[in-house]
Amino acid sequence: MSRFMDLDQNGKIQAYYIWIDGSGQNIRGKTKTIDRPVTSVDELPEWNFDGSSTNQSTGANSDVYIKPVSIFKDPFRRGDNILVMCECYAPDGTPHPTNKRDACNKLMKQYADQKPWFGIEQEYTLFDYTGKHPLGWPANGFPGPQGPYYCGVGADRVQGRKIVEAHYRACMYAGVKIAGSNAEVMPSQWEYQVGPCEGIEMGDHLWVSRYILSRVAEEFDVVVSFDPKPIPGDWNGAGCHTNISTLAMRQAGGMEHIVAAIKKMSDKHEEHIAEYDPTSGTDNARRLTGKHETASIHEFSYGVANRGASIRIPRQCEKDGYGYFEDRRPASNCDPYAVTSRIVKSICQ
Fold first, then answer.
1. Do residues 333 and 339 touch, judged by C-beta distance below 8 A?
2. How much is the pTM?
3. DSSP bridge pairs for 19
4. 42 DSSP 8-state letter
5. CB atoms within 10 A of CB 137
6. Per-residue pLDDT averaged across 131-153, rounded?
7. Is 348 exposed, middle or buried (0-12, 13-18, 19+ CB in 10 A)?
8. Whole-angstrom distance, CA of residue 239 vs CA of residue 282
């Protein structure tokens, strides 16, 4: 491929349009030629796709429209080529039922004066090309018990570091606000962090980071799983811990606002759980058991530095008297538009 990728594009660019399919958790995409380089999403045309092949329409009325909403540099094609995050719309111009971004964007604009910031910790698990066997696990049996793998170093403790490093650099190139990464508790499981992002930006950046991760893994014949409990038994699940603050929380005396927000969220526990995975809580029920650094899905709790609680207040924030808090309930396959919308509904209204 490399001998073709440096061919001249005759002034035109390739724009890779990305959207979320009918599953609410998988990404689709296709390429469109644009006659010249662009600097604004407003310069890009709307497009469409066959929704009957993505579980978003019937064959008799298959067209679903995609509207560009944000652009990123393309780390695979490079040059002036771009990645384009899109929203889905029905033929009558209304937001498609699978489009969580439209409502999220309206909420973020409504409460923009409170300046909600988010930082999401995206966990994931690497599998071999079959998508069935965790990368590097014994062909018959299991690796040693959890303990040495978290932030581990060495071929006997981590698998897939080349993918992790390539993804990190690709996100930086693209303009995704990636903030860090580390090996996780279960072998072949990793985490990266995106943020801080304000308002709607959080969802855009996380979805594009997921696309980049899966696309990088393609190069290594590896499958990325965002399943919140990919391996049953005594193994950690995968979450999408969401860190939240408003301007009032980040200022002196902010702890009062943090505790008040947590109280509001406790009153809406069931509503939050319903939005924290694409199956209205069914996926998360396998993960939120009260074990493996989780709280029970059936109970709400919070505490300082407590990773077994629904919500954790960092020790440093308690010491400072202001800062942010972490909602540990969202699943690794959550829609960040749905998660951030639900949080803003609870704490900003």
1. no
2. 0.97
3. 28
4. G
5. 16
6. 95
7. middle
8. 14
